[in-house]
Amino acid sequence: MDSEVRGSVGAHSKHTQRPTRLPRRANTQRLGDYISDFQTADKATVEVLTAPSDGDVVRAVIESAISPGHSPQGDDKLLLPALTSIKSSQVVLDGQQYVYVQFPSTTVTSSGYDVRRRNFGVAAVRGGKLYALVASSRKDYYDAEKEALLAHIVQSFRLR
């Protein structure tokens, strides 16, 4: 079921005028939602996955963000980030452990164009499920204002 998220997310960005309604679509590959500004390719995804059996939440979040469903889209080549470029931390809030992660990603399209993104994510495990939110922006639209917005989105995530 498609719906819209109302608000002025990034309405004052120097890069482009933002719509006040961002489309929200159900993820067709697994439980979750996909919200995107199709003018700038800013996006946020909320996913519900099986918790990783090896406990590597950081890897699971990155893989789900880079390659939803673990399959490339068409002829695109999806590249996982180098371990040295991944930042992660853990915090316990209201008795629930959250893992925060920041990482770059690159997709090489079938036409050879490199799409580079900055990704901010958060995840929590409960009842054998991994709940993850990843918000990202294309690198060419990324600045201090965008960084603050993505960090705010991720920091607002809580399981109830």
Can you give me a brief rundown of this structure?
This protein is mainly beta and 160 residues long. It has helices spanning 57-66, 144-155, and strands at 3-6, 21-26, 32-37, 42-50, 77-79, 87-93, 96-108, 114-126, 129-138. It is 14% helix and 44% strand.
Per CATH, what is the topology? Protein Transport Mog1p, Chain A
Query: Tally of extended strands?
Result: 9
Query: Could you say which structural class the secondary elements and strand pairing correspond to?
Result: mainly beta
N-to-C order of helices and strands: EEEEHEEEEEH
Task: Return the domain count.
Answer: 1
Number of helices: 2
CATH architect. name? 3-Layer(aba) Sandwich
The CATH class, by name, is: Alpha Beta
Query: Which stretches are poorly predicted, pLDDT < 50 over at least 5 residues?
Result: 1-20
- Average of the residue pLDDT scores: 79
Tell me about the largest β-sheet. Answer: 9 strands, antiparallel
Distance between the ends: 23 Å
How much helix, percentage-wise, in residues? 10-25%
Rg over CA atoms: 15 Å
Name of the CATH superfamily: Mog1/PsbP, alpha/beta/alpha sandwich
- Proportion of strand residues: 35-45%
Shape, per Cα inertia axes = globular
Describe the structure.
The chain has 160 residues and is mainly beta. Helix content is 14%, strand content 44%. Strands 1, 2, 3, 4, 5, 6, 7, 8 and 9 form a 9-stranded antiparallel β-sheet that branches.
